[in-house]
Amino acid sequence: MTSRRPLTDVLAEADLAARVGQSYSATPFPTGFTPLDDELAGGVRPGELVLIGGAQGLGKTVMALQIARNVVAAGGCATYLCYEHDERVLLHRLITIEAGAVADDPGDAPTLSEVGDLLRAGSPAPGGMADRLAGAPLAAEAYDRLRGYGERLVLVRASGRGTGIDEIRDLARDIAGGGVVIVDYLQKVPVLPMQGSSEDERVTVVVEALKDAAMEFAVPVVAIVAADKEGLGNGRTRLPHLRGSTALSYECDIALMLNDKWDVVARHHLLYGTSSAERFHDWIVCTIEKNRNGASDIDLEFRKHYARGRLDPAGNRVLEDLVDERVHRD
Question: Is the predicted pLDDT of residue 231 greater than 60, yes or no?
Fold first, then answer.
């Protein structure tokens, strides 16, 4: 939708906001990942398209679902569209994410496997899930906390046949101005009818539509994006390695690229720090590769707790030297 407004109208609107004590600047939604929010001046903003890219298994869904949880836990709203998993899988992961947030020590939180065993228990539980999860007290507490903000977190079991651009626009309209829309993942969004079109053409249509929806309905749209073959295993995955059109690089406001720290830390850290080099396996590097409203090419690191379905949101700046070519090869 094209908006045509004289600057005088915009100035009058801003003046009125000032007179009544309202903000006239987009208020960010914190991602809950502390160093990332610091670098993004508070979080992701309405109207922004944010991409989370990287190879398979590096925690893109872990980070995205954790962002959704963090937004609603802070009082906002989130809609999470998932083309990969149903609501039961997402609930399973949300329990472990919440349990990790509750735990004083992340190592005390139940694992995905432990929670899965409790969820699969077949005997009747008169008290519902509170009884079923009693075998892992932090899981039971997490479940209760999820109930507290459950109305503000919408889970969408998206379909590659039916959940297209129009449906995503409707969901963005429903949450307009009040939360975050997360798409897991972008290449799965169907574009019909586009029989015979290339993946580049389909991705271009989708990414432009997501950016338009973010701006029209004043919501941040966070989309997971898969890497192409060039970005899988041959070196550090960068923004140009994302699968599909160059429109991905152009349209996004923020691009977060995930890499395994063990693969991208400079060789001298492995050769001369062998006593502690193994610890690099425990971290992912999240690079702010594009940031339209601030600094970019910033490398942050977050400790993996993948057995518990989460990342440690505290994180740090990466202190070691990183390289583009893969240092460690299996």
Answer: no
> Residue type for 25, please?
S
Residue 248 included in any domain: yes
Domain with residue 262: its CATH number is 3.40.50.300
Give which of 10, 37, 35, 38 is closest to 24, Cα–Cα.
Answer: 10
**163 lies in some domain:** yes
- Predicted confidence at residue 233, as pLDDT, reads 55
- What pLDDT digit, counting tens, does each position of 205-227 carry? 999 999 999 999 999 999 999 98
- The three-state secondary structure class of 122 is coil
Tell me the pairing of strands 283-291 and 254-260: antiparallel
CB neighbours of residue 180 within 10 Å: 29
Helical ranges in 177-243 per DSSP H: 199-216
In this prediction, residue 186 carries a pLDDT of 95
**Tens-digit pLDDT profile for residues 16-67:** 877 877 766 688 999 999 999 999 999 999 999 999 999 888 999 999 999 9
Domain with 170, as residue range(s), is: 27-83+158-317
3-class DSSP state for residue 73?
helix
Two tokens, residue 296: 């970019």
Q: How many domains does the chain have?
A: 1
- 212 Cα distance to chain centroid: 19
User: Omega into 306 within 30° of 0, i.e. cis?
Assistant: no
